[in-house]
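Regression check, adenosine-5'-triphosphate case 259:
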Amino acid sequence: MNLAEIIKSLNLKIISGKLNPETKIKGVYVSDLLSDVMGNAKAGDLWITLQSHKNIIAVAELKDICAILIINGGQPDEETIKKSREDDILLLGTDESAFSMAGRIYELFKKHELL
Amino acid sequence: MNFGFPMRLQYMISGGDFNNAGAAASSLKKILKQLSIDSELVRKIVVALYEAEVNVVAHAYSGLINIELDHEKILIVIQDEGPGIPDIDKAMEAGFSTASEEVRSMGFGAGMGLPNIKKNTSTLSVESEVGKGTKLEMIIYLNT
Ligand SMILES: Nc1ncnc2c1ncn2[C@@H]1O[C@H](COP(=O)(O)OP(=O)(O)OP(=O)(O)O)[C@@H](O)[C@H]1O
Ligand SMILES: [Mg+2]
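Current build output:
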């Protein structure tokens, strides 16, 4: 599913990184536990989390996660933003909850017959 | 960099330094990608290394990583100075964690690190001496 479409229809904020209009996500993983993401997220996933510290970038980079969506208005610090640029991980933000984000993305996947 | 085989790499880990946790795994990933190793396999290797690295950061004082890569396998040895693990079988159980509240609030401490290492390696051996430290030795075969 096209990431640009998700960003647009959910009105997500791009905190850092440049959105490639061609970027597609294969799936979504929702978790706030880093070793759960390490064990269970898939390459090409969008990762939804409330964590906003620097370690999430390393996790995303190692797992080939294409973008991180930080929920509940979480604000990464300067160092995290800098590392996301270095590692080419798109950082997205929303004031809404994980439930609302996951639900709406699920609907979009269904609409495009990807589920 | 010269990629002669066997290739040897060494990294240091500082306990408590969450800011740099995962640096060795990231560095290894770049090297493995340059060697055109299958990306699924690269992810397995770096997940195992990352979890071992973070365990030294979260639970020990300092550590040393030694990696040896040849055409068949990658051998990773992580030796730390730290409190050691009193009951290794228990530590290997999914969900078992002694991580502090502060470490947990960052999303560590799910008790999934050692199970992740086990899952992603061909062989894993854990040796530990309470009050001294812990040594993890893992092998991942490249042509699985
Ligand atoms: N290098 C180490 N030195 C001392 N204790 C360790 C070490 N590695 C693991 N342990 C012990 O084993 C437990 C389980 O480790 P494991 O990596 O599975 O989970 P965790 O580190 O607590 O949480 P997670 O890895 O999910 O963030 C730890 O909580 C700790 O008590
Ligand atoms: Mg761990």
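Comparison notes: Residues 71 and 94 of chain A are 5 Å apart (CA to CA). Chain A has five helices and five strands. No diff flagged against the previous build.
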